[in-house]
Write a structure and sequence with these properties.
Layout (H helix, E strand, L loop, with lengths): L8 H27 L7 H7 L1 H42 L13 H39 L5 H18 L4 E2 L5 E2 L1 H27 L4 E4 L16 E3 L7 E6 L7 E6 L1 E2 H6 L11 E3 L17 H23 L3 H25 L15
Parallel strand pairs: 4-7
Antiparallel strand pairs: 1-2, 3-4, 3-8, 5-6
Helix pairs in contact: 1-3, 1-4, 1-5, 1-6, 2-4, 3-4, 3-6, 4-5, 4-6, 5-8, 8-9
Bound molecules: zinc ion (ZN).
């Protein structure tokens, strides 16, 4: 069974779900604290005094999130490792029944988990700072204009809450300089780590079975980064660069086979192959036995899949706005937008034949 980052990507959703649930809890908390006594003339003074209370509530949310996330991260990586290793075992099954030493993945899992947990720390800092900023911004604006009536205060609070719900906790920039919302950032970071775990476990297991060559699949929705590697044979380890190698036949003792190698697996991965969301997979290439698959037409373009991701983000955004609504009219309007975007996803799916990913359209609920 070939390995691909997709083998483990569902595991990233469990971690990202925790962040999304926390974000929703945050919006709820800020809304509750702001709405408390909003029609009273003493509101500004009371709300200024409540900053500490809000901060403490947010710190509690973050503390619970840290514990949950670190547990979920370890679990996801251990499971990804296991799946990658199993994939290799299944793949080699009949051909390499001699794999007896099963390398322990614990250390690798811990290393990947520690690095991912370190990546989430700045996220937690940002959650606290931005939540308190949103709250203080609303109260400060009302304090600066003491003559504002209750109605205007309510409108100002609603528009600030809407802004926050729309963008969520922001400011996450990846190494390529693109910015992400919190859930997407955490999910991307986790996918990348679980994908790496699955691929590393697979490779390690192939190595233990003496398999030195792998082949890259053809993917139904091909990504531009991976196109050059599609259906190519790669050396599992070793030097980069295309070359011809002489290797022993996988099943015939002493028979040598010439194989065209496009480069090494680490080389292809550092050039982007098996990036998060990658549809390509890698499997053992057994000289003289494995065949290079024929090229196949694509199902939907890469742009189509990106369009689907965009629509899914819109659905989640409007679900958050629904959660932030201070009155029924806004709630109903937000719900209507959710349905509009869901309709567009249905159209896209019908047009392209891409699979619908309903879980990507869900907001998870707070604990
Ligand atoms: Zn790819």
């Amino acid at each position: 069974m070939p390995v691909s980052p997709a083998l483990a990507e569902d595991l990233a959703a469990a971690v990202a779900d925790l962040y999304e649930a926390a974000e929703r809890t945050l919006i709820d908390r800020i809304r509750q604290v702001l709405a408390d006594g909003i029609d009273s003339p003493a509101w500004v003074g009371l709300r200024l005094a409540a900053v500490g209370q809000l901060r403490a509530a947010i710190e509690d949310i973050i503390a619970a999130l840290s514990v949950d996330a670190s547990g979920a991260i370890h679990q996801a990586l251990a499971e990804a490792w296991e799946r990658g290793a199993q994939a290799a075992v299944v793949e080699l099954g009949a051909l390499a029944p001699t794999v007896s030493v099963i390398p322990a993945g614990t250390q690798a899992v811990d290393r990947l988990a520690q690095s991912l947990i370190a990546d989430t720390r700045p996220v937690h800092v940002r959650i606290l700072r931005q939540s308190v900023d949103v709250y203080q911004g609303v109260v400060a604006r009302a304090a600066a204009a003491p003559a504002l009536g209750a109605q205007t205060r309510r409108q100002a609070a609603q528009s600030a809450l809407d802004d926050f719900a729309r963008r969520g906790v922001t400011g996450f920039v990846d190494r390529a300089g693109r910015s992400w919302d919190m859930r997407s950032y955490v999910e991307m970071a986790t996918r990348s780590a679980v994908g790496r775990a699955a691929v590393e476990a697979h490779t390690e297991r192939l190595g233990a079975a003496g398999v030195e060559l792998v082949i890259v699949s053809q993917a139904p929705e091909e990504c531009p980064l991976c196109k050059p590697w599609e259906r190519q044979i790669l050396a599992r380890t070793g030097a980069p660069g295309a070359r011809e190698v002489q290797v022993e036949h996988a099943t015939e003792d002493g028979e040598m086979v010439t194989v065209e190698v496009a480069g090494s697996l680490p080389e292809a991965r550092s050039a982007g192959l098996m990036h998060p969301n990658c549809r390509h997979s890698v499997s053992a290439y057994l000289p003289g036995v494995s065949r290079v698959p024929k090229a196949q037409p694509s199902r939907g373009t890469y742009e189509d899949t990106q369009r689907q991701r965009y629509l899914e983000r819109q659905i989640r955004k409007w679900k958050r706005l629904e959660a932030a609504a201070l009155d029924d009219a806004r709630r109903t309007a937000a719900r209507a937008r959710v349905r509009t975007y869901q309709g567009r996803v249905r159209e896209l799916v019908a047009e392209t034949g891409l699979p619908r990913k309903s879980h990507r359209e869900q907001l998870t609920t707070a604990r």
